[in-house]
Specification:
The complex is a heterotrimer of chains A (337), B (284) and C (289). Chain A has helices at 8-29, 37-42, 46-80, 93-106, 108-111, 115-136, 146-170, 173-183, 194-213, 215-221, 225-230, 235-257, 263-275, 279-303, 305-308, 314-333. With 337 residues, chain A is mostly helical. Chain A has one domain: Orthogonal Bundle (ABC transporter involved in vitamin B12 uptake, BtuC), CATH 1.10.3470.10. Residues 1-5 of chain A have low confidence and may be disordered. Chain B is α/β, with parallel strands linked by helices. Chain B has helices spanning 51-59, 81-87, 103-108, 122-134, 150-163, 180-197, 208-214, 232-235, 238-245, 276-283; strands spanning 11-18, 28-35, 40-44, 66-71, 88-91, 168-172, 200-204, 217-222, 225-230, 248-253, 260-266. In chain B, the strands form three sheets. A six-stranded mixed sheet of chain B has the order 5-6-7-3-8-9, sandwiched between helices. A three-stranded antiparallel sheet of chain B has the order 2-1-4, covered by helices on one side. In chain B, a hairpin with a 2-residue loop joins β8 and β9 (225-230). The longest helix of chain B is centred in the middle third of the chain and has 18 residues, at 180-197. Chain C has 289 residues and is of the alpha/beta class. The longest helix of chain C has 24 residues, at 136-159. The model of chain C is unreliable at 1-23 (pLDDT under 50). At the A-C interface, α1, α2, α3 and α8 of A face α1, α3 and α4 of C.
Chain lengths: 337, 284, 289
């Protein structure tokens, strides 16, 4: 990559850093209601301080983590499955996490634990689904096959969503409503404690680091399995490592924010359209752009509150803004490699 | 990189056999071959003779069902992929690649097993530049690989293998799709590399005349078995070629460079006038 | 890009410079209600003007529509609640928990959790809200009036002939009020037999087959939606519907546990009895509001 000077890449990362910084500042400064920022910071407005430090700050960090996780995992799943339509939810982990979280909302014992229980159950459900996909999609020599991963993932997601629909139809109406809100993807959840935020952050950073370390191998994998092996990459090992890291990211994201769609599909494509397909650039690039994108989308849901008297689910907004933005990018970048 | 001891044999096949799962006959049967450093070995034979399978065995991409394969002393199918890639490079026969990529990025992937960290060092950049030069791919280094002609793509594949700085270079049809000037130029450059750097080269080459131009030794394969090994004079006999390819070939000697050449003569069973040995006798 | 960023930044500055909303002016205590029927009760207790926040479903009485919105039932905006600078927040315990509860406690806001799952909960709920906002006397009067209505209902129940009633609260899918629901409890107080005898779910979804097999004498249409439920059930072959014994809930207060619930229950009980036996009952029926 660094063989010729590529002025676009430093500029790209500088732009992303500015974008993310500005998004975070905007997300802290603006919201459903005006805030006395000065008073909040100096402490002269205790209620505003509470909103800033205990609501907007954790929520913004959460949005950034979830956006980065979904985008980076979407990117690497597209790469290892050689399928540009792959998204973070394609490999069954999402179905597993959603089912785990839903069960936790329904089962009285776990429901008592509140949102922490739901998050933990969703995380475990996601990892359980990955283990299952993993076992079911190996060939005789123990290698994962992309085609079967996709197939098992799609079937598993269908089964999970049917199970969720079933649960939804048999529980009390207000429980069903709560499940629906969670499944649509929302950052207005109860996950606000420093422990929960730091835990999610730690899992996400670990998995992102793992992905970044696999970037050269992922680049080689674009050559196809045999050519990748010829240049010194073990395709099976790379695929397994990337799946594990990607699944950790998705499970973490779903467990704190439900199913936020579209981010993991379009951000990777946008990044590739801007700077090409070197994973050493696109992995951190997708994480940063995804973080900024979701922080802004979540901010928009809060800004829309005075109009609709509710915060629209952020997953709906990501698709509404992301879709047209993506098509614009596609048309604009269409003549570039 | 610490190179393996120079005295280890780059490639040693001992009874190497490989059968694809479910296939009636093995694709490679009981192959014995030793390739020395600096040697340029050409594999010739009709379609389906087992040339590509032999190369894949040597690259460790498949595990022999019987016999053994050793590259610089180790088993390439069991050693870690980076270890193998630092010793053995393979130029595959196919040209496909998934995502859009520039030639430079594509060739730089040949350095994957030699990266110290995640990004290329100056050494890596130098190796890539040299590989592009040797393969005559420098002029289109910044163009997207997908947009190149088949012949240009073939040269880029060779450059990627050269960027690995291997001790054993395996080429599967390196001159396919190349025009005559580039085909000749490529085999000469590879031959130079073998002579000056001591790289052992094994190439499956469809075009017999290209093979004869540069190879020190010829391996003749048919139906998975090695039928003859030796220098061109020994192997390129009219009867042997007729048995192997099922058609009559006129074998002559190029008076300018002293190399042998072949020309197809006609369909099997048609009367043949003159013999290669007589013509050879006349020309020498 | 740079220009749009500048515009965005100017927005931040505008937002930051905007003076905070006038804090803690107007009548005390400042109240936020996170439940529509609680809003209605608060107005009935005379503290409607103290409401500084309500849900977007709080539309009774009409004055409630002017109260600033803080979200829905489950999708409450914490920022909006805190920005209303409330002293008291009334709502269901399933909403007043978790992070919202923590933040309210940290801001020194008093939480008044109220549950409305049985007929008796209406009385205790009114009292709890009254105690929460310092209107004990007014709450006592409302509660007493409701208790009196229930007593009349019990008196009539003793004289009510055996009637099987199915109460429909949702049209598509067909949702009915079972015995364990608040509406089921009211039906029981009326002395009628609830055709939906399930105890596991308060509001189960029924198929037409179940409705026909239950063969209720009277169907109560509590689904306040468009669509002709009686015709639908009559087409399906339900005898009660064919013979015109479908009663429509005339007073929405029945569905919202609050000040008007007692009167609405008396009205419905009267309608049910008339549907079976058109002869006038001894007491005059209360006029619909």
């Amino acid at each position: 990559m660094n063989l010729v000077s590529r002025p676009r890449i430093p500029a790209f990362f500088a732009g992303l850093a500015v974008l993310l910084g500005a998004s975070v500042l905007l997300s802290l400064a603006l919201g459903a209601t005006p805030l006395d920022l000065l008073g909040a910071l100096t402490g002269s407005a205790p209620a505003d301080r509470l909103v800033l430090l205990h609501e907007r700050l954790p929520r913004t960090i959460l949005a950034a983590i979830v956006g980065a996780s979904l985008s980076a995992s979407g990117l690497v799943f597209q790469a290892v499955l050689s399928n540009p339509l792959a998204d973070p939810y394609v490999i069954g982990v999402a179905g597993g996490a959603a089912l785990g979280g839903t069960l936790a909302l329904v089962i009285p014992g776990i429901a008592l634990l509140g949102h922490a229980g739901v998050s933990a159950a969703a995380f475990l459900g996601g990892l359980g689904a990955v283990a299952l996909t993993w076992r079911l999609s190996r060939d005789r020599r123990g290698r994962m096959r992309a085609y079967e991963v996709l197939l098992v993932g799609v079937v598993f997601n269908t089964i999970a969503s049917a199970a969720i629909m079933f649960l939804k139809s048999v529980v009390r109406a207000e429980k069903a409503q709560e499940m629906l809100l969670w499944l649509m993807g929302t950052l207005s959840s109860d996950v606000r404690s420093p422990g929960a935020i730091l835990g999610t952050l730690a899992v996400a950073l670990f998995a992102l680091g793992m992905l970044f370390a696999s970037a050269p191998a992922l680049n080689a994998l674009a050559l196809g399995e045999e050519d990748a092996a010829a240049v010194g990459v073990d395709p099976g090992r790379t695929t397994r490592r990337v799946f594990l890291a990607g699944s950790l990211l998705v499970a973490a994201a779903v467990s704190v924010a439900g199913m936020i769609g579209f981010v993991g599909l379009i951000v990777p494509h946008a990044v590739r359209a801007l700077v090409g397909s070197d994973h050493r650039v696109t992995i951190p690039g997708s994480a940063l752009l995804g973080a900024a994108f979701l922080v802004l989308a979540d901010l928009l849901t809060r800004l829309m509150f005075p109009v609709f008297d509710t915060e629209a689910p952020v997953g709906v907004l990501t698709a509404l803004i992301g879709g047209p933005a993506f098509i614009w990018l596609l048309k604009r970048g269409g003549d570039r490699p | 990189m610490t190179p393996a001891p120079a005295n280890t044999t780059p490639l040693r096949l001992e009874g190497a056999t490989f059968a694809y799962p479910g296939a009636a006959a093995p694709a490679v049967l009981d192959a014995h071959l030793v390739v020395a450093p600096g040697e340029f070995v050409g594999i010739i034979g009709p379609n389906g003779a087992g040339k590509s399978t032999l190369l894949r065995l040597a690259a460790g991409l498949i595990t022999p069902t019987a016999g053994s394969v050793r590259t610089a002393g180790f088993d390439p199918a069991r050693a870690s992929r980076p270890t193998v890639a630092r010793t053995v490079a393979l130029v595959p026969a196919s040209l496909a690649v998934g995502f859009p990529m520039t030639v430079l990025d594509f060739v730089a992937l040949g350095r994957t097993a030699r990266l110290k960290g995640l990004f290329e060092s100056d050494d890596d950049r130098t190796a890539v530049r040299r590989a592009l030069e040797i393969a005559e791919a420098t002029p289109f280094a910044r163009r997207p690989y997908q947009e190149l002609s088949a012949g240009e793509q073939r040269r880029v594949l060779v450059a990627r293998a050269l960027a690995q700085e291997p001790r054993l270079l395996l080429l599967d049809e390196p001159t396919a799709n190349l025009d005559v000037a580039h085909a000749v130029s490529l085999v000469y450059r590879v031959a130079d590399l073998a002579r000056t750097q001591g790289v052992a080269v094994v190439a499956a080459i469809h075009d017999l005349n290209v093979a004869l131009l540069a190879c020190d030794r010829i391996v003749l394969m048919r139906d998975g078995a090695i039928r003859a090994v030796g220098d061109p004079e020994e192997v390129m006999r009219w009867t042997t070629l007729r048995e192997t390819f099922g058609c009559d070939l006129y074998i002559g000697r190029n008076e300018v460079n002293g190399r042998l050449f072949v020309v197809p003569m006609g369909r099997e069973g048609e009367p043949v006038t003159g013999t290669s040995s007589r013509r050879r006798g006349q020309s020498s | 890009m740079a220009r749009s960023l500048a515009i965005l930044l100017s927005l931040v500055l505008a937002g930051a410079c905007k003076p905070p909303p006038p804090a803690a002016q107007g009548p005390r205590p400042r109240i936020v209600s996170l439940q529509p029927n609680a809003t209605e009760i608060l107005f009935a207790l005379g503290v409607g003007p103290n409401l500084v926040g309500a849900t977007r479903y709080c539309d009774r009485p009409d004055a409630a529509k002017a109260v600033p919105r803080v979200g829905g039932i489950l999708d409450v905006s914490l920022e909006a609640v805190l920005a209303a600078r409330p002293d008291i927040v009334v709502g269901s315990p399933s909403v007043l928990r978790g992070h919202l509860a923590d933040m309210l406690d940290a801001s020194g806001v008093r939480r008044v959790p109220v549950v409305f799952e049985t007929a008796d909960d209406v009385e205790t709920g009114i009292r709890a809200i009254g105690a929460g906002v310092g209107r004990e006397a007014a709450a006592e009067a409302l509660a007493a009036s409701y208790r009196a209505d229930l007593a009349i209902l019990a008196g009539r129940a003793a004289r009510t002939p055996p009637i099987t009633v199915l109460m429909v609260v949702g049209r598509n899918p067909l949702v009915v009020a079972a015995r364990s629901s608040y509406l089921g409890d009211l039906l029981a107080r009326m002395g009628v037999t609830n055709a939906a005898s399930s105890d596991t779910m308060p509001y189960p979804t029924w198929s037409l087959e179940q409705v026909i097999r239950a063969a209720p004498d009277v169907v109560v249409d509590g689904a306040l939606e468009a669509g002709d439920l009686p015709a639908h059930l009559a087409d399906a072959g339900l005898t009660a519907a064919r013979e015109g014994r479908v009663v429509r809930v005339r007073d929405e207060a029945l569905l919202r546990p609050g000040p008007g619930t007692g009167k609405a229950a008396l009205d419905l009980a009267d309608q049910i009895v008339r549907a079976v036996n058109p002869a006038p009952v001894p007491e005059p029926a209360p006029a619909p509001p």
